Automatic annotation (TrEMBL):
Gene (UniProt): sol
Biased composition (Polar residues): 155-172
Lineage, top ranks: Eukaryota, Metazoa, Ecdysozoa, Nematoda, Chromadorea
Residue segments, region Disordered: 92-177
Domain Calpain catalytic positions: 214-520
Active site annotation, chain numbering: 283, 444, 464
Cellular component annotations (GO), alphabetically ordered: cytoplasm
Entry protein name: Calpain-D
């Protein structure tokens, strides 16, 4: 037989293919010979070839000098390998009279507190990694991983090089400055956050109750500073708005489209159609939130205060810059002074979960204006904390590539991964008038709610966070080709605001990327988040190496975050995953390379 069928996505692959072209699953015929692999293998890359490629990349950006015009004596492969290894995992000199200290990601002699070393495996500690203190230390970079088994990580600091020379490597872990960390159950970490948040909530509520006053969050005050400078990004705003025209009101003082038909509440059977974008250009975030609304289990992990609080105390849990944070907010929201209605995100049927989540994110970033412009993948990472990936639709130009893309979407939908997409924001020329003529908004983010095949038709179901302005051609709500049976299957609850079906072929024509959050609902997944600090000016002298020890075959995902990218300019990131080399603190086979990067994280 000249092909094999993937047991996960059912795609037929060529018999010589080691991996499924759609989902990356391994060919069963080659599985036995690769039992030790914990990540899908890329095509075989020699160490010399990989190092030469890295050398070329570093030379092109000026991190190492280019070769002179004359031909010098060639370096031996062994010496060059040792040189690159020292750059990736430089040895840490240890004074014979000074005991080694646990590595915290801070420079030597830092005034910041040093973390304690975790006990030996298998007793895991919940989130023992140190907190990042980037003040004066340059940019912070965090890593996260999830896996069914319990890997431990040895984080090694980088050291400065002098003329490219290093001291000799040490010979044992005990002689090297390090910090061993152990993964913890994702469910355990969530429960710990909820317990800590509950204590804070009770203290604030009790104070407000005793003094008979509403909660006012003075760390995010009701002022122009919390709104931010909206004039700098007017191109992303739905409607022109001036921060001086806004007032801050509590829910009972607002006017809404639903009036008094509904009492104010946090949740009222939340749906994606409950989200309405306001005057802020943050469709990328709200489209992510619309997909989350389809998963009550995830939404409940974000909104910790699930009932209406008369004192206005609410807690929201978000994953910002790779770190879970529980944010306390009050229920004063920016409103239009003339209409007394919410100026930004609205939760229909008088629900508070939408504006509460938006406000919590604005508080973390510094202002509402900081939420202007972004991509869905960033919103998914903030809301789920899960590893994310991106599918490029613009490169699906052949029948084979489109078949692979369709199989990937089906596989991700079957896995219940969360997806969003971007319309008219890629490399292709966009005719705004042509897009709007078919009901699509260019340079806009949509939620990808469903992927299905009905009677031979490949269809995708999308949602515009505006709640209006939808696809108006074939398979749209107003399309004349609908049959009664098709409507019963695809629209069992009737049309929903902002939601529509469209053919897969037309989807490829008008959309450029699909962003995916790989949320794992199965029990047993564990995670570990490690804080590292890079120097303000970094290159080959300041490359961080992190060794991951996995005791059993497992599936793992790595994400590197860059802290505070919405407050300042970010740097480029690159991640290479190697097997551990034959000698101490060396690397060998290149297992995976992460080439996709967006704003403040890479995969």
């Amino acid at each position: 037989m000249g092909w094999w069928a993937c047991k996960y996505c059912t795609l037929h692959n060529d018999a010589s293919s080691a991996l499924c072209a759609a989902c990356g699953s391994q060919n069963p015929a080659t599985l036995a010979s690769n039992q030790s692999s914990f990540l899908p293998k890329l095509p075989k890359v020699s160490v010399t070839g990989a190092l030469n490629a890295i050398d070329s990349a570093l030379t092109s950006v000026g991190l190492i000098p280019s070769a002179p015009s004359h031909s010098p004596p060639s370096r031996s492969p062994t010496k060059w390998y040792r040189s690159i290894v020292d750059r990736l995992l430089p040895p840490c000199p240890v004074s014979p009279t000074t005991p080694a200290q646990p590595f915290s990601g801070f420079p030597p002699h830092s005034n910041y507190p040093q973390p304690t070393v975790s006990p030996a495996y298998p007793q895991p500690k919940p989130n023992p990694s140190p907190k990042l203190h980037p003040h004066g230390l340059g940019r912070g970079m965090s890593g996260s991983s999830r896996s069914p088994s319990a890997p431990n990580i040895l984080a090694s600091p980088s050291t400065s090089m002098s003329n490219g020379e290093h001291s000799s490597p040490v010979n044992s872990d005990s002689e090297r400055t390090s910090l061993r960390l152990y993964s913890s159950s994702s469910i355990h970490l969530e429960k710990q956050d909820v317990q800590d948040a509950s204590n804070t909530f009770m203290r604030i509520t009790q104070f407000c109750k005793s003094n008979k006053i509403p909660f006012i969050d003075d760390s995010f005050p009701q002022c122009v500073k919390s709104i931010g400078d909206l004039s700098q990004n007017e191109g992303t705003l739905r409607r022109r708005i001036d921060a001086k025209d806004l007032i801050w009101l509590r829910p009972q003082d607002m006017f809404t489209k639903d009036g008094r038909r509904y009492a104010w509440t946090v949740f009222r059977d939340p749906k994606s159609s409950d989200i309405e974008q306001g005057s802020l250009g943050n469709c990328w975030f709200l489209s992510s939130l619309a997909v989350i609304a389809e998963r009550p289990d995830i939404l409940e992990q974000i909104v910790l205060t699930k009932v209406y609080n008369p004192f206005g105390v609410y807690q929201i849990r978000l994953c910002v810059d790779g770190r879970w944070q529980v944010v306390v907010v009050d229920d004063f929201f920016p409103c239009n002074a003339r209409t007394r209605g919410l100026a930004f995100a609205v939760g229909r049927r008088n629900q508070l979960w939408v504006p509460l989540i938006e406000k919590a994110f604005a508080k973390i970033t510094g202002s509402y204006a900081k939420l202007l412009a972004g991509r869905t993948i960033e919103g998914l990472a903030v809301l789920t904390g899960a590893p994310c990936s991106q599918l490029d639709l613009e490169n699906a130009t052949t029948p084979d590539s489109q078949q692979i893309l369709w199989a990937s979407l089906l596989s991700m939908r079957e896995a219940r991964f969360i997806m969003g997409c971007s319309c008219g924001a890629g490399k292709r020329y966009v005719n705004d008038a042509a897009y709007k003529a078919v009901g699509l908004q260019p340079r806009h983010a949509y939620s990808l709610l469903d992927v299905t095949e009905y009677e031979g038709h490949r269809l995708v179901r999308l949602r515009n966070p505006w709640g209006t302005f939808v696809w108006n051609k074939e398979w749209s709500d107003s399309w004349s080709g609908w049959t009664a049976q098709a409507r019963a299957v695809l629209l069992p609850d009737g049309a929903e605001a902002g939601t529509f079906w469209m053919p897969f072929t037309r989807f490829l024509q008008h959309f450029d990327t699909v962003d995916v959050a790989k949320v794992r609902s199965a029990f047993g997944w564990r995670e570990l988040r490690v804080d590292c600090t890079l120097q303000p000016s970094w290159g080959r002298d300041h490359i961080i190496g992190i060794r991951v020890h996995v005791e059993h075959s497992t599936e793992a995902a790595f994400t590197v975050y860059q802290a505070g990218s919405r407050q300042r300019t970010e740097s480029d990131l690159m991640v290479l995953v190697h097997r551990v080399g034959p000698s101490v603190y060396t690397v060998s086979e290149l297992v995976a390379r992460y080439t996709f990067a967006y704003r403040h994280f890479t995969f």
